[in-house]
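TICKET: design request
STATUS: open
ATTACHED STRUCTURE:
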């Protein structure tokens, strides 16, 4: 492992500050507006929802990231600013303009993000003052406040950071994310903001983010719903002073590993914090003929409502696991597949074994349930993360809007 975990989250890298304020969008008891700021312009890249219905801040940020540079992000929770027509886009632009004015930077260098209820206009009379307040009160300690401000039904902040050596310089990668419901692999189903003081070109940064997202954010699922507001954005300000990464090579490889580590920590936290979840599910497919086969099968098993419900009920119904792999689109011979729950093998060659049901129930009762499928057809593997499906998921989403 070429990197080490460090404290500080999204503001751990040099030159990054954050702040938060309360606009009382949905709740009056905590901050719901966050501003993330780089003290110098940064290379920037993003990945966005594959949903055809895209929220106003997604459209605005996609447009602004086409230039490969950014310096700040303004985000809110409690309201998605989605499906509001031209008014929604005007509101997103107004938020970025307010942040840019306080920060003294070009408005086109400010990205926007929102999460919450769809189809309602933002209360701009409260949002804009909160944006200005958050932008005026930035600090290195503000990262955790910002991570809390973007939460919706999340039960805990999601933060991560690692440090590594690149070309004799100490480089840091940090991040924060939110996500609990409407989580399904199809880009990066949540809001995620990543930072680094590494020097890297926008083109390499885009490639690195896509690689990391494919292995982490695209491998999580909670409920099969791909949101209108999903985005993951990374800013790289170069203040670490390393030689700029401008092509694949050893420094690029090390950077991608560190970025992926941060993304994986955040992705697993999102899966663990799924709405109503009582346990994390980790699905690994090994021995696949291709990488795509492994990913398709792992995601399908993690996403299966039947598998998730069985895990919640501590029912070792391995047939549901094999069934989900079968409709995933992955190519494999069902007659070769072995299935394991934790260290307990429950099927061999596509057929059930006489396994210890009590032991299986004990495994399924843990806080983390590991499911492994061995296709025995090749050298590729992939891991996906999800959570169980409990009664509380329905309760939370039955009255989400009200």
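STATUS: resolved
RESOLUTION: sequence designed for all positions
ATTACHED SEQUENCE:
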């Amino acid at each position: 492992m070429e990197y080490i975990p460090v404290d500080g989250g999204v503001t751990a890298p040099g030159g990054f500050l954050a702040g938060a304020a309360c606009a009382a969008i949905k709740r009056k008891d905590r901050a719901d507006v966050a501003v993330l700021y780089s003290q110098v312009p940064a290379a920037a890249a993003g990945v966005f929802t594959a949903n055809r219905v895209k929220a106003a801040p997604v459209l605005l940020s996609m447009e602004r990231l086409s230039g490969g540079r950014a310096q700040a992000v303004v985000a809110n929770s409690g309201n998605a600013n989605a499906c509001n027509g031209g008014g929604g886009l005007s509101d997103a632009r107004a938020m970025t303009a307010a942040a840019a004015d306080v920060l003294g930077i070009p408005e086109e260098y400010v990205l926007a993000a929102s999460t919450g209820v769809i189809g309602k206009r933002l209360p701009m009379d409260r949002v804009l003052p909160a944006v200005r307040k958050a932008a005026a009160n930035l600090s290195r300690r503000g990262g955790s406040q910002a991570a809390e401000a973007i939460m919706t039904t999340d039960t805990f902040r999601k933060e991560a950071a690692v440090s590594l050596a690149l070309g004799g310089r100490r480089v840091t990668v940090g991040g924060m994310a939110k996500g609990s419901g409407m989580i399904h692999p199809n880009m990066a189903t949540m809001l995620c903001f990543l930072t680094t003081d590494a020097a890297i070109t926008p083109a390499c940064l885009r490639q690195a983010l896509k690689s990391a997202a494919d292995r982490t954010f695209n491998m999580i699922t909670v409920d099969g719903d791909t949101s209108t507001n999903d985005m993951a954005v990374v800013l790289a300000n170069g203040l670490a002073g390393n030689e700029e990464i401008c092509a694949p090579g050893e420094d690029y490889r090390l950077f991608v590993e560190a970025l992926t580590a941060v993304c994986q920590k955040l992705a697993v936290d999102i899966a663990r914090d799924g709405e109503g979840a009582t346990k994390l599910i980790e699905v690994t497919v090994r021995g696949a003929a291709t990488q795509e086969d492994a990913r398709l099968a792992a995601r399908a098993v993690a996403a299966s409502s039947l598998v998730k419900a069985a895990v919640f009920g501590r029912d070792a119904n391995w047939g549901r696991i094999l069934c989900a792999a079968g409709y995933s689109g992955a190519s494999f011979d069902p007659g070769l597949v072995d299935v394991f729950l934790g260290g307990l093998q429950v099927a061999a060659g596509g057929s059930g074994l006489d396994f210890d049901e009590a032991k299986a129930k004990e495994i399924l009762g843990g806080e983390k349930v590991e499911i492994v499928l061995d296709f025995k057809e090749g050298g590729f593997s992939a891991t996906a993360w999800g959570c169980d499906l409990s009664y509380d998921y329905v309760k939370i989403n039955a009255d989400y809007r009200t």
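CLOSING REMARK: The chain has a mean pLDDT of 93. Residues 293 and 330 are 4 Å apart (CA to CA).
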